[in-house]
Specification:
By secondary structure, the chain is of the alpha+beta class. It has 2 domains: 140 residues, OB fold (Dihydrolipoamide Acetyltransferase, E2P), CATH 2.40.50.140; 59 residues. It has 9 helices and 8 strands. The strands form 2 sheets. It has a 5-stranded mixed beta barrel with strand order 1-2-3-5-4. A two-stranded antiparallel sheet has the order 6-7.
Length: 252
């Protein structure tokens, strides 16, 4: 099974959202989600490194590529949900950055998830129900440095140079061929997913279990979001609201 692939992009297929990556004279067709640092940021002639999911059926073997290990982990978990195949999983990860997906699941944001093409309300509810505990456990592992990093070769930059995405970089094509875009190890989860995970860590330090902490932090954040007060909230403020919620439940 292919789990990692590094090579030069010799062809891009816009219709399939796929690229052909040449490695040691062999071309591998890889389907890549469009969002984030995905398919849309890749140029022909560029050398890229991808985490790979090898999907095997009786009549076909397909490769799906990801720029972060967290994205591949989420893809694998999505395949465990009933009626979610690899193509729909790619559609989800094309529409929602994997780091934001963690926050959507943890806060049970049904509205955001159901807006993805091919995902109605019922399917969104099923995804949240089946993946909530799995996703937030996995994200917590990545957020605390549990994911192995893929090193960037000496003398080469990471996914971007000088803050300019590879697709927009004006570097001549012959120079871009020398540039290796290494996968992200997924250790930073920004935005409200980061706030939820930080709040979870604070609750854990007070003796609550990881699952209980993540469930409470996600639920309280969702309630705050409904009230329109989620913008600008810090992890410490969310933790205080979580403790208020826990206390209120004990006194019901």
């Amino acid at each position: 099974m292919i789990a990692y692939l590094e090579g030069r992009v010799i062809y891009r297929d816009e219709g399939k959202s796929s690229v052909i990556v040449e490695n040691n004279g062999v071309g591998y067709e890889v389907v890549i989600p469009e969002g984030g640092r995905g398919f849309l940021t890749i140029c022909e002639g560029e050398t890229i490194a991808l985490f790979i999911h090898t999907h095997v059926r009786e009549d076909n073997i397909s490769l799906y590529g990801f720029r972060s290990s967290l994205q591949r982990e989420i893809f694998n978990l999505l395949l465990e949900v009933k009626d979610i195949g690899p193509r729909l999983a790619v559609t989800i990860l094309s529409a929602i950055d994997e780091k934001n997906f963690v926050g959507i699941i943890a806060s049970q944001d049904l509205s955001s998830l159901s807006q993805v093409k091919g995902i109605g309300k019922a399917k969104a509810e099923r995804i949240i129900m089946e993946l909530k505990n799995k996703i937030i456990k996995k994200a917590a592992i990545f957020n605390t440095g549990g994911a192995p990093a893929v090193p960037v070769k000496k003398g080469e930059s990471g996914p971007e140079r000088g803050g300019v995405p590879a697709r927009l970089n004006s570097t001549p094509r012959q120079n871009r061929q020398k540039h290796v875009t290494a996968p992200d190890n997924g250790t930073a989860v920004p935005g409200y997913s980061d706030i939820i995970l930080e709040s979870c860590s604070a609750l854990e330090s007070l003796g609550y279990s990881r699952v209980e902490s993540l469930n409470v932090a996600g639920k309280v954040y969702r309630n705050i979001k409904k009230d329109g007060a989620s913008s600008g909230i810090s992890a410490s403020e969310l933790t205080k609201e979580c403790l208020k919620y826990i206390y209120s439940q004990k006194n019901v």
